Amino acid sequence: MAPSTQMAERPAPEVGGGVSNKKLLTHSLASLIDQALLSGLNFALGLVLIRLATKESYGVYSQLYVAGIFASTVIEALITGPLTTIAPGKTPEQRARLSTLLLRFQWQLSIGLALLFGVGSAIVAKVAKVDAHPILLGIAFAIYLFANAQREYHRSISFIEARPRRVLHTDVAYALAVAVGVGVLLLAGYFTVPAILLVMGLANIAGMWRSTDHGYARAQHDPAAFRAAVAEVMQRGRWALPGALVAWATNYSYLYLAAAVLGVAASADLNASRLLLMPISLSVLAWSRVARPMVSRLFAARDWKHLDRLAWASVAGIEALTVLYVIVLWLALPWLQAHVLGAKYHGLEPMVLAWGGYFAINAARWIGSSWLTSNDQYKLLLLSGVACLVIMLISAAVFIPLYGTWGAILSLIIVEAFDLLLIWVVFLPMLRRKSKSAHP
């Protein structure tokens, strides 16, 4: 797999066009189907691990998966996030050249992160005496991180070029490869964390195989053009990265804090209950990947009427979906408890309701964060992220020792509620007032 995949293919001219409600609906539907596929895949894999693996093994897998999100967050903040903000203002030829030049930077960054996290996971596994071979775990995790980074870049460029159906084709191939690989592991009786990570890494490569375009002319990687492309995204990435890392720590540090205070089994309980609500989070992500380029153009045009309409429609739609999903899940919990979760995870019902409240607040907050990102407001996101992290650490230090796993969820709810008010009540109205005063 060479660092010149179909991401560099000639872009669709439609990206630079106006915002169409029909186009947004069609692309959102394709993106929603894609995220539903990925959500279903992660959900099924998680349930298989919950059912067949020990709590400790599932806890280790959960923490490695979250560490993988950390690595993806770094790449998103430094490359694909700024690129999504920059690309709508460029011509198709400029977008093609920029995405090809940044693919080289993405390879360099993803290789470095894969090696760093692979070695780190092996060392931690050795010191903590994790029930997995440290070297095999480190190699498998590194392969997964690197391959996943390539597929994510591929997906990001496709979303920027308004081609969510191309993303869907890639992810269907990825999901099928994961399903086949996990099936082979189960039949062979080798269902271990390193083996699962290796299967997921190879499945990422399989997902991109048929989508690779070798016909498009490769960009000339002259040093000056490469440095200019990196500088253009780093101008935003230097603010986006600290904010993204702070946001990751705010959203996921509870898993490591709970494991440190209550044991690895507690992180398994938290992740098992949260897993049941993850389709909500992935639906919000599906919306944001499609809408962000359009929101960037609306901000640039200062089209407040359509921004307001899109904002309220998005929040209403996501909240309605959240309530409906929680109701259905609550009705299905007795069956899930008896036939899927098993006795190891008895008593998760109240935690599922607590997570439902968290995701309802998180969805509305995430839409507000996407608005800030689309308006290039990485400094404000960093400011809110630091404030939220401080509140998270204080809340977790107080509530986890007092209420155990409940305390971890309560801490997250407090943080999300604070961030929701900060973004929608303070930051977004402030930006509108500034824009109106600067451009009467």
Supply database-style keywords:
440 residues; mainly alpha; 13 helices; globular; transmembrane helix; transmembrane
Fold and architecture overview:
Helix content is 84%, strand content 0%. It is globular and about 60 Å long. Helix 2 packs across helix 8 (264-275). With 440 residues, it is mainly α. The chain crosses the membrane at residues 32-52, 64-87, 107-128, 135-153, 173-200, 244-266, 272-290, 310-332, 352-368, 380-403, 409-431.
Query: Which runs of at least 5 residues are low in confidence (pLDDT < 50)?
Result: 1-19, 212-219
Number of DSSP strand runs = 0
User: Termini distance?
Assistant: 52 Å
Radius of gyration: 21 Å
SSE string, helices as H and strands as E: HHHHHHHHHHHHH
Please give the count of helices.
13
Q: Which structural category fits the helices and strands?
A: mainly alpha
Mean pLDDT: 82
Helix content: over 70%
Beta-strand share of residues: under 5%
Based on Cα principal axes, name the global outline.
globular
